[in-house]
Amino acid sequence: MKIEIYMKLFGKEIFVPDTIVNTFIVGILLTIFAIAANIKFKNADKTKGPEGFQNFVEVVVELVSGLTRMIMGEEMFYFMPYIGTLVLYLLVANLFGLLGFTPPTSDYSVTFTLALMTFSLVEFYRAKTKGFVGFFKSFTEPLPLLTPLNIIDEFANPISLSFRLFGNVLSGVIIMSLVYSALGYFAPILTPVMHAYFDVFSGVLQTFIFAMLTMIFITNVVD
Fold this sequence. Notes:
The chain is mainly alpha-helical.
C-alpha cells in the first residue's frame, strides 16, 4: 500500500514519495507511544509490579540501556536516549513492510540522513574532546602523509553506514515485490517464511548493526 502526496506550492508541483510519508507516520506512531508510556508510568500503581504495556516498555529500556553500557561504558551512558530513539525508529521503520507499507529505510535519503546525524555527533564530540587544534591534528595521525586517506576514511563512514541499511532493506522490498507478482493470489499463503526473514530477521539485524556502529564510532572519538 502506497500513500503518496501531490500538491502545488507557489505554482510548482511537489511530489512526496510514500517512503517520506511513511517516515512521518513512523514519527507520529513513536510520539504517541512515548506519550502513552509517559502517562502509564505517571499513573502506575507503585504497590504493584509492572505488567502489560508498562512491562514491555521497561524491557525495551533495559535492553537499550544494557547495550549502551556494554559498548559505550557508564561514563557515556548519557547517549542512551539518542541510541534508544534510533533503535526504536529503525525497528519500526524496518518492520513497516509487515503492514503492507514501503519501509522508510528503503529510501536512501532517509538512511543517509540518519547516517549524517551519527556523523555530526562523531565530529562534534571529536572537536569537543580534542579541541580545535587536536581536531585537525587527529587527521594527521599516525603519519602526516596519511592525512588524505584519514579524511576520505572519515567521510566514507556515513556513506557505508547509510548504504548498508538502505541496500539490505531495499533488496528485501524488491524481492518480496517480485515474489508477490509471481505468485499472485497464492502469495499470502506461501510467503510467511520470506517475510519472517526479510522483514523481521533482517530488519532487526540491520537495526542492531546500525546502532552498534553508531556507538562504536562515537566511542572511538571520545575515548
